[in-house]
C-alpha cells in the first residue's frame, strides 16, 4: 500500500461516533483521508475531525471505494448487512456492534490483552468487544497473565450512554421531569413523574437503579449478562471459565463501573495484585481508601484507562480478589479500543 491508509468511520454521527472523532483528533495521526459515513438522514452534515470540517456521506457500496480500514459504529443490523459488503471490497472492518463478536472466524480484540489475534481475520472483519466487557477486561487480563483466572463474578453499574444517544437523551429528560420534586418517599412516585418517557430502559433510570440491560435470554438472564460472560471467555482464551454476571443500569451519563470477584489458581496477595495493576498498560490503580481514594465514574469519564480500586483479598478465600473498576464506556469501552485495533491494522498494512 502506498501512503497513509484511508479510513472510513461508519456511524460518525452517533454517541460512539462523536467520541471517535475526538479520539482521531487527539491520537498520533496514522491516517490519510478520513471519510465520514452515516444514514441518509445525516448525509450532507458537516462534522469536525482533526480540525477540519468533513461532510458526512450516506452509507452505500460506493462509499467504500478506495477505503483501507472502516470502523463501524452502527446498530447490529446495519453492521450485519454492510460489514461483509465492505470486506468484499478488500476493506478491513473493525466492527463495534454485536453482529460478529462470537463468530469463530472473527477475532475479538483488546490490544492490551490479545493483540496477536488481530492478524487472523478470515472474514476481513475484526470485532470490538461490548462496552461492559471492555470496561474491566484490561485489568483482568493483567491479573490473569500473572495468577491464572479460575472464576469471575461481576456486577455492573452501567451508564445510560451504553444505550447510545437515546439513553443520554432519556436520562436528561427524566432528570428535568423529576427536578425540584420531593420524590423517593412512596412506591411508584418516580414512575408517575416520568410517565412513559422511559426511552430504551424498562423503568425510570433517574433517581433509580434498574437491574436490567439488554433483552431476555433463557432462564432469566439478560443478553448483556450473557455477552459479558461469552466475550470474557473468548478474549481471555478460557472457553470454560465460570462467569456469573448481573447487569444494572444507574443514572450516570458515561462510564461503566463494576464490582468484580475474581478467583485464581493459587494464593494471591493485595500487594502483588496492586503491583500488577499499577504497572499494567491501560490501567490506573487508584486505591487508598484511608485517603478517600477510590475510582468513581466522575473521575474516570473522558479518560482512556481502566481505573481500579478497593483491591481486597476475599476474606474467606486466599485465592480470590475483590475489585471496583471504572471505565469510560464510550472511550475504552467503544471508540478508543476500536481506534487501537484500527491502528494495529494500519501498522500491518504499511
Ligand atoms: N454506546 C456505547 O457505550 C457502546 C459501546 C460499545 C459498542 N457500542 C455499539 O456501537 C454501535 C453504535 O452505538 P451508539 O451508541 O453510537 O449508537 P447511536 O448513538 O444510536 O448511533 C448510531 C449511529 O449509526 C448510524 N446509523 C443508524 N442506522 C443506520 C443506517 N441504516 N445506515 C447507516 N448508518 C446508520 C446513525 O446515523 P444517523 O445519525 O444518520 O442516524 C449513527 O451514526 C452499536 O452497535 C452499539 O451497540 C456502543
TrEMBL record:
<dbReference type="InterPro" id="IPR012080">
    <property type="entry name" value="Asp_semialdehyde_DH"/>
</dbReference>
<feature type="binding site">
    <location>
        <position position="158"/>
    </location>
    <ligand>
        <name>substrate</name>
    </ligand>
</feature>
<dbReference type="Pfam" id="PF02774">
    <property type="entry name" value="Semialdhyde_dhC"/>
</dbReference>
<keyword id="KW-0791">Threonine biosynthesis</keyword>
<dbReference type="Pfam" id="PF01118">
    <property type="entry name" value="Semialdhyde_dh"/>
</dbReference>
<comment type="function">
    <text>Catalyzes the NADPH-dependent formation of L-aspartate-semialdehyde (L-ASA) by the reductive dephosphorylation of L-aspartyl-4-phosphate.</text>
</comment>
<dbReference type="InterPro" id="IPR005986">
    <property type="entry name" value="Asp_semialdehyde_DH_beta"/>
</dbReference>
<dbReference type="InterPro" id="IPR036291">
    <property type="entry name" value="NAD(P)-bd_dom_sf"/>
</dbReference>
<keyword id="KW-0457">Lysine biosynthesis</keyword>
<feature type="binding site">
    <location>
        <position position="101"/>
    </location>
    <ligand>
        <name>phosphate</name>
    </ligand>
</feature>
<dbReference type="InterPro" id="IPR000534">
    <property type="entry name" value="Semialdehyde_DH_NAD-bd"/>
</dbReference>
<keyword id="KW-0220">Diaminopimelate biosynthesis</keyword>
<dbReference type="InterPro" id="IPR012280">
    <property type="entry name" value="Semialdhyde_DH_dimer_dom"/>
</dbReference>
<keyword id="KW-0521">NADP</keyword>
<feature type="binding site">
    <location>
        <position position="329"/>
    </location>
    <ligand>
        <name>NADP(+)</name>
    </ligand>
</feature>
<keyword id="KW-0486">Methionine biosynthesis</keyword>
<feature type="binding site">
    <location>
        <begin position="161"/>
        <end position="162"/>
    </location>
    <ligand>
        <name>NADP(+)</name>
    </ligand>
</feature>
<comment type="pathway">
    <text>Amino-acid biosynthesis; L-methionine biosynthesis via de novo pathway; L-homoserine from L-aspartate: step 2/3.</text>
</comment>
<feature type="binding site">
    <location>
        <begin position="13"/>
        <end position="16"/>
    </location>
    <ligand>
        <name>NADP(+)</name>
    </ligand>
</feature>
<comment type="similarity">
    <text>Belongs to the aspartate-semialdehyde dehydrogenase family.</text>
</comment>
<protein>
    <recommendedName>
        <fullName>Aspartate-semialdehyde dehydrogenase</fullName>
        <ecNumber>1.2.1.11</ecNumber>
    </recommendedName>
</protein>
<feature type="active site" description="Acyl-thioester intermediate">
    <location>
        <position position="131"/>
    </location>
</feature>
<keyword id="KW-0028">Amino-acid biosynthesis</keyword>
<comment type="subunit">
    <text>Homodimer.</text>
</comment>
<feature type="binding site">
    <location>
        <position position="249"/>
    </location>
    <ligand>
        <name>substrate</name>
    </ligand>
</feature>
<feature type="binding site">
    <location>
        <begin position="41"/>
        <end position="42"/>
    </location>
    <ligand>
        <name>NADP(+)</name>
    </ligand>
</feature>
<feature type="active site" description="Proton acceptor">
    <location>
        <position position="256"/>
    </location>
</feature>
<feature type="domain" description="Semialdehyde dehydrogenase NAD-binding">
    <location>
        <begin position="6"/>
        <end position="121"/>
    </location>
</feature>
<dbReference type="GO" id="GO:0004073">
    <property type="term" value="F:aspartate-semialdehyde dehydrogenase activity"/>
</dbReference>
<comment type="pathway">
    <text>Amino-acid biosynthesis; L-lysine biosynthesis via DAP pathway; (S)-tetrahydrodipicolinate from L-aspartate: step 2/4.</text>
</comment>
<keyword id="KW-0560">Oxidoreductase</keyword>
Amino acid at each position: 500500500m502506498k501512503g497513509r491508509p484511508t479510513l472510513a468511520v461508519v456511524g460518525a454521527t452517533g454517541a460512539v461516533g462523536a467520541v471517535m472523532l475526538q479520539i482521531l483528533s487527539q491520537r498520533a495521526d496514522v491516517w490519510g483521508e478520513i471519510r465520514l459515513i452515516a444514514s441518509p438522514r445525516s448525509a450532507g452534515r458537516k462534522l469536525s475531525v482533526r480540525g477540519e470540517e468533513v461532510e458526512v456521506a450516506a452509507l452505500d457500496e460506493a462509499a467504500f471505494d478506495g477505503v483501507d480500514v472502516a470502523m463501524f459504529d452502527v446498530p447490529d443490523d446495519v453492521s450485519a448487512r454492510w460489514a461483509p459488503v465492505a470486506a468484499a471490497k478488500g476493506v478491513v472492518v473493525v466492527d463495534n456492534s454485536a453482529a460478529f463478536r462470537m463468530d469463530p472466524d472473527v477475532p475479538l480484540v483488546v490490544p492490551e490483552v490479545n493483540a496477536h489475534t488481530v492478524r487472523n481475520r478470515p472474514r476481513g472483519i475484526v470485532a470490538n468487544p461490548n462496552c461492559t466487557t471492555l470496561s474491566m477486561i484490561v485489568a483482568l487480563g493483567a491479573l490473569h497473565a500473572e495468577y491464572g483466572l479460575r472464576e469471575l463474578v461481576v456486577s455492573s453499574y452501567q451508564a445510560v450512554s451504553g444505550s447510545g444517544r437515546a439513553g443520554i437523551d432519556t436520562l436528561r429528560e427524566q432528570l428535568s421531569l423529576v427536578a425540584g420534586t420531593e420524590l423517593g418517599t412512596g412506591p411508584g412516585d418516580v414512575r408517575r413523574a416520568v410517565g412513559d418517557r422511559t426511552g430504551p430502559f424498562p423503568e425510570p433510570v433517574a433517581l433509580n437503579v434498574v437491574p436490567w440491560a439488554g433483552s431476555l435470554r433463557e432462564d432469566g438472564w439478560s443478553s448483556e449478562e450473557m455477552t459479558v460472560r461469552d466475550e470474557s471467555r473468548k478474549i481471555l482464551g478460557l472457553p470454560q471459565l465460570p462467569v456469573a454476571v448481573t447487569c444494572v443500569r444507574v443514572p450516570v451519563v458515561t462510564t461503566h463501573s463494576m464490582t468484580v470477584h475474581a478467583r485464581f489458581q493459587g494464593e494471591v496477595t493485595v500487594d502483588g495484585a496492586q503491583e500488577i495493576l499499577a504497572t499494567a498498560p491501560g490501567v490506573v490503580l487508584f486505591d487508598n481508601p484511608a485517603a478517600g481514594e477510590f475510582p468513581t465514574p466522575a473521575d474516570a469519564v473522558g479518560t482512556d484507562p481502566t481505573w481500579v480500586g478497593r483491591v481486597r483479598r476475599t476474606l474467606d478465600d486466599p485465592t480470590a480478589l475483590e475489585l471496583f473498576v471504572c471505565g469510560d464506556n464510550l472511550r475504552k469501552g467503544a471508540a478508543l479500543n476500536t481506534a487501537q485495533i484500527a491502528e494495529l491494522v494500519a501498522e500491518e498494512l504499511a
